[in-house]
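Protocol step 4 of 6: structure prediction from sequence.
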Amino acid sequence: MVNRVPRYLVFDKDGTLLDLNKTYGASVEVLAKRMSDEFGVEPRRLEDVLGFDSERKRFKEDALCMTVSNSEMARKVEDSGIPAGPVMSHMNNYRPTFVAACNLRVLFGDLRELGVQKVGVLSLDDVAAAGRFLEAQGLSSSDVDGIVGGDMNLRPKPSDDGVKFLLENWKCGDLTEAMIVGDHPMDMKVGAGFGWRVGVYGTGLSSPEALWGAGATHVVRDVSKLIDCVIKEDP
């Protein structure tokens, strides 16, 4: 067994550290029941429009409620013959219980023990919101060496501004010593040149095939498999 460890590690947040399917899938199921009770909309019909597979408990790759603006979602819901008003009211007012992909405090601690020197997080949320999520998982400011958020003058995705910002701050001179972990093909692309581009498919929207196709060097079900299935098994 080879144990080659990245010095620099960048995590995407939503769909990687945060389980999108468990966090927001519950919202769609609650909404589907309400729309059935109040408006007679068959639950599977609404779930299909929004892009949620209730049998597999996960969103489809092109899930409407995850990939378009609110105005576009409202239009497409209305076009399907379902009243958009109550759907959008629910979406805008629902306060989810955020579900982490695994025990992040343990994961981050184990990564440090293995020798990872810097750990950063990319988020489309603002920095404060991303920080609150991490704190709720038992992580402190000393556990994370940088957060790039949507409120900064950087775009975490689809540009590589966010990863460049982190790596420059960390004085990373060799991209092959860096790892990016994300649930979207875009994460694999912004990690071009990294020694590891790890795609996760169980907690986000993308399929393993889409992640491999975008240039992933490894694909795992979720970040709980990162150490055993990637770092400790990397040739």
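Step 5 (inspection) to follow. The two ends are 8 Å apart (CA to CA).
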